[in-house]
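Journal club prep, notes for RB
We'll compare a predicted complex against what the paper describes. Inputs for the zinc ion case:
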Amino acid sequence: MIKSRAIVLHRFPYSDSSFIVKALTEECGVVSFIIKGAKRKESPFKGALDPLALSEVVFRQNPSTDLQFVKEASIIDWHGQLRASLMELAIAQVMAEIVLRYAPPATPIPDEFTLLDHALAELDSTASHAAGQASTDDSIFSRWLLDICDLWGYHLDLGVCSRCEKILVEPAADFSPESGSLICKHCLGVQSPRARQETLKGLWELHLHEIHPNQAVQNLSGRVFVENALLSYLRNHIGFLKEIHSLSWLQEVRKLCSAPST
Ligand SMILES: [Zn+2]
């Protein structure tokens, strides 16, 4: 029997009465569970196996099958605030799908668990503060992308010019999401940059946050551009072959959220 914290990444119907749940467990990496009778009203697990829930699951790992049976599951944090916010929910779904698609199967990945656990907790608390604008943090998704790049072997150094290798003392003058190279003003010379000014400013703010982690990034410059640049960098390295379906939903939500309200 294994008892582990788990984050539910995905859930889909399997038969008339069953679900398959894919969860990132702290102990065993990504595990697929078959949940029989879960569609009945009196499901024994309540919300513990809802997508994006953080739960404690008890299961017996049967090495001869890919589908494991859950013996017990109880909620640690259902992330209710996050669910009530369209934007935070869309971001959380993209993070969960990236882990689901790219994490190695049946391999313990405790660092990925920790990163996702922290990011979901932060999104949940940002969503709960959003109404009062008190302590929102725009950089959760960007920082998670940077950390995942780092973890998967594609560390992005935001503080150094990739060409002359000098330490940057101001925002870089260009950034290439294909190679991840930042170029300083001197190295760029008279060439015109491909990256937007907001993106470069946002990447610089993320760098300053890496140096001073206690200072929250409240209004990340060019937030959407920065997120897209980092997503593009990550996907250039881990491969575009696996489609991230929830990304198109995130794009829709961004449009909805930026539309002027009447
Ligand atoms: Zn340079």
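Talking point for the session: The longest helix spans residues 110-129.
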